[in-house]
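Researcher: I'm preparing a figure for a lab meeting and need a structural model of a single chain. I don't have an experimental structure, so a prediction will have to do for now. The sequence is pasted below. Please return the structure as tokens so I can convert it later.
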Amino acid sequence: MNKINFRLFSFFSIKVERDYRKRMIKEIEKHVHKESDLISFNINPSNRFEHELYKEKNLLNFNRYYIRKNLIFIIIVFWNLCIVIWFVQIETYEEKHDPLLINSDSKQPRRKRRIGSEGK
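Model: Understood. Here is the structure written out token by token.
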């Protein structure tokens, strides 16, 4: 009876360990995009602290990858925004300081009409 219990326990512990490894491998593969980033790793459930450290390091690499990828996009958007602002400033400066535009846009003061004085 004792041997049967031990065998069942060892079978379930091996199965749990395999399931745990499969889950961790899938989780790591979600966060790793390059094959070069897949370092040979050995997930041992008895040493979960090291695995947590590995997972945190992997997530940091994942974040750095996206920061590098998005940094180029952010720089391009910022540069385009600067160009648009520059062109808008040039156009508003030209409208304010161009003598031809100033003379054409100047409005003559309108005469007020009184209601009873149309026939005079």
